[in-house]
Amino acid sequence: MKIGIILFGLLAWISCNEEKIAKRDVETIESEGEWVNMLATDGCSWHFEIPAEDKTMTYYLPDDNSRKEIEKVLGKKEDSYSFTKVRIRYSLTGRKRDVQCGWGATNSYDEIAVYEITKK
């Protein structure tokens, strides 16, 4: 009986440790950018514009969990033309999301997980 309890405890301990090993490290990026809605001018609905190293803009969409943090800091999204300068700390999720654009079009942008955002 004691051997059974010891084996059960050992298996439980091993299974708990495997979860920690399965987690992967993600690169966190901190940058300035803008939270933008240009749908009213035939652009795209709410998205982030982050300057890239080559002076172009990179476009990102937040994941579902990040939207709550964004609304808490920047307020509820409205359907108006808007540019809000932000400082953002995020990581890429490896997924894509679609965003509504003018003339009924959609674009697919990289999805990000937002860890921290401040209004500038």
What does this protein look like?
- By secondary structure, this protein is α+β, with helices and mostly antiparallel strands.
- The protein has one domain: OB fold (Dihydrolipoamide Acetyltransferase, E2P), CATH 2.40.50.
- The protein has helices at 2-22, 64-74, and strands at 29-37, 47-51, 57-62, 82-100, 106-119.
- The longest helix has 21 residues, at 2-22.
- The radius of gyration is 21 Å and the shape is elongated.
Cα-atom Rg, whole angstroms? 21 Å
Strand content: 35-45%
Number of helices: 2
| Total individual domains | 1
Percentage of residues in helical conformation = 25-40%
Structural category is alpha+beta
Shape category: elongated
CATH topology: OB fold (Dihydrolipoamide Acetyltransferase, E2P)
What is the name of the CATH class? Answer: Mainly Beta
